[in-house]
Amino acid sequence: MKVGLFIPCYVDQFYPQVAVATLELLERHGCEVHYPLKQTCCGQPMVNSGFASMAGGCDKNFIANFSGYEYIVCPSGSCALHIKEHLHSAEEPNAAATIRERIYELTEFITDVLKLEGVKASFPHKVGLHVSCHGQRMLHLSSMSEKVEKPFSKAEALLSTVDGLELFRTSRADECCGFGGTFCVTEEAVSVSMGNTRIKEHLANGVHYITGGDMSCLMHLEGLLKRQKIDIKVIHLAEILNAQ
């Protein structure tokens, strides 16, 4: 199974350990993983800010780097969704369409393609799960409280198989943390308030870590935690699922 590993730019720059954990996790489960060295930002920040016309170079570069892979895997729901929804090319429409069909968020790939019901990992800590909006509402990685549907969570199902891990969900599990990409810059006060609301629930649960599938959301929460000197760490799902 030939996999192209798509690492978001902010993960590459600030959280490289997440990229390494993702690579090792996929290789441990039989994937032949390739990391295209010329990959850059997927263009999501520009598109989300209303400058989609300026993301053409990102689209062209993504197609050049990821064409030909059987699967493309990304440890970020929002970046995976951006490619799935917005990647296009007037010059190479077929290549763009093929990539849109072949890209997966990490837990989605593990669950739906590798079809693993669990992983061999050990993480003996109290962990709070943060559910990111893009993954939940657009990629359908978990159920939504406003819909009448059978509750499910691909991340929670995988975490439940990790030895020693005590998992805690918040009472308002699918509420946004306030990051929202450039929203946290343009609406700083609202963003901070939303993030602090999330943190209060995790504090009440007495967790040692907050995990999730989007390091961008976790980065936002991490900033709030550090500024308030709260002794809770953030950790990506890949790091836990790869912990030995």
Automatic annotation (TrEMBL):
It comes from the Bacteria. One of its GO terms (cellular component) is cytosol. Pfam families: CCG. GO terms for molecular function: oxidoreductase activity. InterPro entries: Cys_rich_dom. This is L-lactate dehydrogenase complex protein LldE. Residues 3-84, 127-221 form the Cysteine-rich domain. Signal peptide: none annotated.
